[in-house]
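Bit of a strange request maybe. I'm writing a small parser for structure token strings and I need a real example to test against, not something I typed by hand. Could someone generate the tokens for this chain?
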Amino acid sequence: MRLVLASNNAHKLEEIRSAVGSKHEILSLSDIGFVGEIPETHDTLQGNAFEKAEYIYSRFGLNCFADDTGLEIEVLNGEPGVYSARYAGEKPSFDDNMNKVLLKMEGKSNRKAVFRTIISCIIEGREYTFEGKCPGQIVTSKQGEVGFGYDPIFRPDGFEQTFAQMSIEVKNKISHRGLAMVQLIQFLNSI
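Reply from user aminoacidic:
Good idea to test on real output. This should exercise your parser:
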């Protein structure tokens, strides 16, 4: 099956293509000639994921999917949550967002956090939703060079490394997005 990933995030595209393998073809927005930003105006991950997928589906009529991911930190009452990508303001760098989290976490002993991904997939006009969660801890300083987003400060439970210290293959097996992708792939393989 051919599906469009409704995202301009090149790191996310690479991660998802790696997880999907060769059975399904994942197209980028540039592959279909889309240039621009896709709106994210909702205050829930599910609302944003559906809005992004529907935005592309309604304009191109192509089967597509989008995800929205949030890092939910217990001691910060679930922040940054749905605002994870823009936690430090409009168009912040990954470092800006991580630095804000690390600053707010200074002196906090409770480091519990959960990464959560919601995928909204639209096939022939019908929406399907998949969710993945990965519990872990916020480390006290950035560790590792691979990945993107909050990967250098998030260590999944049961591991000694942050996501940014893991290979993409290991991360895809345990991460929030990887777990949601497994559900999406199983669904695609069943239709």
